[in-house]
TrEMBL record:
Organism: Streptosporangium fragile
Protein name: SDR family oxidoreductase
Keyword Oxidoreductase: yes
Homology family: Belongs to the short-chain dehydrogenases/reductases (SDR) family.
Classification via SUPFAM superfamilies: NAD(P)-binding Rossmann-fold domains (SSF51735)
Presence of the UniProt keyword Protease in the record: no
Tree of life domain: Bacteria
Length: 298
């Protein structure tokens, strides 16, 4: 099989100054993509800013024979998102791939979390992914081609103590991804999300030390690179990835229980049937889920 190349393609990678984003940008550039390396250059909690991280990665790409431009614009503002996409169009003439990876952490137990800490995390992860994708969408639609890769998390899929803000944001990206997959389908735009486990500055204080060698960012970037390629026609899906393992994550609906005009007590008495997992359905659209509900009424 031939190598998957990105010659002639232009990719935007947000949060590309460190960790996963850096790895994604380098992987895409190595295979021929021209890359907009975006990173505000702030701390893990989103404070501060520096041109250094984005510039360093862009320079490394150029040193390796690739083409890249650095961007320090803020994904969480409409002006910043517009500037990021304009950097791709003005410098390279087009945009084909958007990898939404930028994120911050403001971990705190739910009872101690402030409204500001909740809002700031959603602003970068969810609002940022929405804004950058929205700015790129008209270009992708006009050319009849595009790939969007969003970054969810196991914390969003399954929850995690002390991360109500982060978990909410990461599950929100699942809904955004699935909707982008539906709305972009006719225009040749495919959107998917990853839920990665990797050793980065964001997770090094959370993961055991022995994870560093096995859960490298590069092992995540291989999946991102495939999802960003024209060879991948899959859309609207979420994939768990880490340590060399890749798996589809899906929403399932159990067989359920049915009785017309049921009471509160009926719900209580049939809770075991309601909680049953087998046989389960895996609807991929709202219509499929509604269809299953309608059939149960017959």
């Amino acid at each position: 099989m031939s190598e998957l190349r990105f010659d002639g393609r232009v990719a935007i990678v947000t949060g590309a100054g460190h960790g996963l984003g850096r790895s994604h940008a380098l992987a895409l550039a190595e295979r021929g993509a021209k890359v907009v390396v975006n990173d505000l250059g702030g701390a893990l909690d989103g404070t501060g800013a520096s041109a250094g991280p984005a510039a360093e990665v862009a320079e490394l790409i150029r040193k390796n024979g690739g083409e890249a431009v650095a961007s320090t614009d803020n994904v969480a503002t409409p002006e910043g998102a517009k500037a990021i996409v304009r950097a791709a169009v003005d410098t390279f003439g087009r945009v084909d791939v958007v990898v939404n990876n930028a994120g911050i952490l403001r971990d705190k137990s739910f009872g101690k979390m402030t409204v500001e800490e909740f809002d700031q995390v959603l602003a970068v992860h969810v609002r940022g992914s929405f804004l950058v994708s929205r700015e790129a969408f008209p270009y992708l639609k006009e050319q009849g081609y595009g790939r969007i890769v969003n970054t969810s998390s196991p914390a969003g899929l399954f929850g995690n103590f002390g991360q109500a803000n982060y978990s909410t944001a990461k599950m929100g990206l699942v809904g955004l991804t699935k909707t982008l997959g539906i709305e972009g389908a006719r225009a040749g735009i495919r959107a998917n999300a990853i839920a990665p486990v990797a050793w980065t500055r964001m997770t090094e204080s959370l993961l055991p030390a022995e994870f560093e060698a096995k859960f490298t960012a590069e092992r995540v970037s291989a999946l991102v690179t495939f999802l960003a390629h024209e060879a991948c026609e899959t859309s609207g899906e979420v994939f768990s990835v880490g340590g060399g393992r890749v798996a589809r994550v899906f929403v399932a609906e159990g067989p359920g229980w049915k009785k017309d005009d049921h009471t509160v007590e009926d719900i209580r008495d049939n809770w075991e049937a309601i909680m049953a997992e087998q046989p389960y359905l895996t609807p991929t659209t709202l219509g499929q889920q509604a269809s299953a509900s309608m059939k149960a009424m017959l």
